[in-house]
Design goal:
The structure holds two protein chains of two kinds. Chain A is mainly β. Chain A contains no helices and eleven strands. Chain A has strands spanning about 5, 10-15, 20-25, 30-40, 45-50, 55-60, 60-65, 70-75, 85-95, 100, 105-110. In chain A, the strands form two sheets. In chain A, strands 2, 4, 5, 9, 10 and 11 form a six-stranded mixed sheet that branches. The radius of gyration of chain A is 13 Å and the shape is globular. The radius of gyration of chain B is 13 Å and the shape is globular. The mean pLDDT of chain B is about 95. The chains are: A mainly beta, B mainly beta.
């Protein structure tokens, strides 16, 4: 069935390095792809989204890349900090409405 | 948490008992959602509301009902709790033009014994 999934369950990076979190999707009809961050014991927090007709979008210290040819989405975090340690979820908005479908998440661990 | 509260924050209940979780927002946002979060499944949408008394089902709605009698409150009811409904439940809100940017509450950890 159609799904949004993540390549790796855990990613460890050194403080100051760049992080790349990957996500594969199978629904070519999705209108938006979105990244959320969830810190331990808290609810998820919106990071950034990208429309399906775009290839790249930048935010504050984050960049999302969308490769529609291989149906791949990535979140790049520049100069990773300890506060970036969290679980990161990719999600898709299939119809431009208000329903999101979330992936299973990647745990990012920042090593000092 | 963007003016969203959930109550209770923790609850232990027995199989077969009814349970109601409450989500309250002070943002006057139109849309409200209930998700459950389980290991290996990420977040799954249970029900959502697009206005007072307007609700619709999500992908895992069986065994759950919702009600929204006021803009600020969205209730999730488990009519007869089962062990498979042990989970962390999150409420979220969003507003016009911000459908991808949902604000989540702190969550309710529900254990059904």
């Amino acid at each position: 069935g159609e799904s949004v999934g993540l390549h790796l369950p855990t990613l460890s990076v050194q403080e100051g390095d760049n992080s790349i979190i990957n996500c594969a999707y199978s629904n070519s009809a999705s209108d938006y792809f979105i990244w959320y961050k969830q810190e331990s014991g808290k609810g998820p927090q919106f990071i950034i989204d990208i429309r399906s007709n775009m290839d790249k979008r930048q935010g504050q210290r984050v960049t999302v890349l969308l490769n529609k040819t291989v149906k791949h989405l990535s979140l790049q975090i520049a100069a990773t900090q300890p506060g970036d340690s969290a679980v990161y979820f990719c999600a898709e908005n299939k119809g431009g409405g208000n329903k999101l479908t979330f992936g299973t998440g990647t745990q990012l661990k920042v090593e000092l | 948490d963007a003016g969203i509260t959930q109550s209770p924050r923790h609850k232990v209940t027995e199989t077969g008992t009814p349970v109601t979780l409450r989500c309250h927002q002070t943002e006057n946002h139109r849309y409200m959602y209930w998700y459950r979060q389980d290991p290996g499944h990420g977040l799954r949408l249970i029900h959502y509301s697009y206005g007072v008394k307007d609700t619709d089902k999500g992908e895992v709605s069986d065994g759950y009902s919702v009600s929204r009698s006021k803009t600020e409150d969205f209730l999730l009811t488990l009519e007869s709790a089962t062990s498979s409904q042990t989970s962390v439940y999150f409420c979220a809100i969003s507003d016009y033009g911000q459908l991808n940017e949902q604000y989540f509450g702190p969550g309710t950890r529900l254990t059904v014994t």
